[in-house]
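Schema walk-through. Below, the input block comes first and the output block second. Nothing else is stored per chain. Lengths vary across the set, and this one has 328 residues.
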Amino acid sequence: MELLKLNLAIEPDLQNFIQFVLTAVGNLGGNVFVASLATLTLIKELRSAGAGTGYPLPATLELAERKLLAHWGNDGRHLAVALFPVPPDPTAVRQLYQHLQQSTARADPAVLLRRTAEMERFLNETRERTEQEIRAMQDALEQRQAELSATIQRAETDALTGLLNRRAYDEKLQQAYRRVLRQKNESLSLILFDLDYFKQINDEFGHQYGDAYLNKMAHAMREVVRTDVDLLFRFGGDEFAMLLFCDAQIACSKAMKILAQMNGKVSIGIACIAPDDSNPPELEDFIHTADKALYEAKNAGRGRVVVNGCPPSSGTGCAHFCQPRETK
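--- output ---
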């Protein structure tokens, strides 16, 4: 039987609860002295659980046959404060219950005000602590995201030139391809580059010069693209690539600028997907078209640009290659 229930938010609540426990022991014929020793342990447990700190700690006093039990919190913690030799008389139990209920109903206004103030303080402190914990979690999450982003960037970046590497190329190309097919409002051009006679340059002038030459190519590529829009890659060795969200004519113009900066010593192949293409190529065919254009540029004497497999010109100009070759 539950005899009493209180929230031990402030110190007077805790003291009243202990006093009610001792009153119950005495009224039911128990040993108050022995119960007083038990309440010392009870007070320690209740304080440890947050009693008297503004925390609304629920506590109940319950009679279970010959045991008087104190319960607190919401996790089943309890302590036996008295053991009666025989079950208490039901009349005495009812009278005790009425007495305890009347005692808790007569609340001192000053105590009520203090309880309200303490609970308000507790709630404010809890809110501030929670906000600090949330901010700390957000900071930790942002730091973790930054670390993860940096790790991914390192994994996808060519260490020498700072361009994206082959791993990133495979992923970014698929994303760009799906994007233009889904939105149907922009073109996509894939440009493949091969530095002409790079092995000879590297062998003749040394690897340090060769590295500088590769960085010169990376710089030339950066000069013609839009930051955070177009994508630049180095596969390794002397192979480079660009993904541009533009048509073949603009891609050709940019390729020619790179060719000029590299003194005409780059072979370049371009493939393009147009937004009005009713039958766009599969991704593998798109890549193959650029590969084929690059091969034709190299096979025709290098140092030139081929767009979508059009035959190369005899010189380095490519004005008439800015449109794909018509098929019969």
